[in-house]
UniProtKB/TrEMBL annotation:
Official protein name in the record: Phage shock protein B
Length: 81
């Protein structure tokens, strides 16, 4: 027959392993949530930059757009440079 001390030791080991597992799972989920938040914040930042770039491009005339896209001076001259 197994002694009381052995059962108590096994129960304590199982409890500690359970707590460590729970702690690991919670830390993993917290890290995953933090990474999702970082990704979302970066996506919002990229969209804001893109909107600013779109506004700048929208305000260019044909010659300015040609210059911004790297057109050669003689090519951009057709657009009124």
């Amino acid at each position: 027959m197994i002694s009381y001390h052995l059962w108590a030791s096994l129960a304590a080991i199982i409890a500690v392993l359970g707590l460590l597992t729970l702690s690991h799972v919670k830390a993993y989920h917290a890290g995953a949530a933090a990474e999702r938040l970082t990704t979302l914040n970066r996506s919002v930042e990229v969209l804001r930059e893109r909107n600013a770039t779109d506004d700048q491009i929208r305000n260019l005339d044909d010659a300015g757009l040609c210059r911004e896209l790297g057109g050669l001076p003689d090519e951009c001259a057709r657009f009124g440079l």
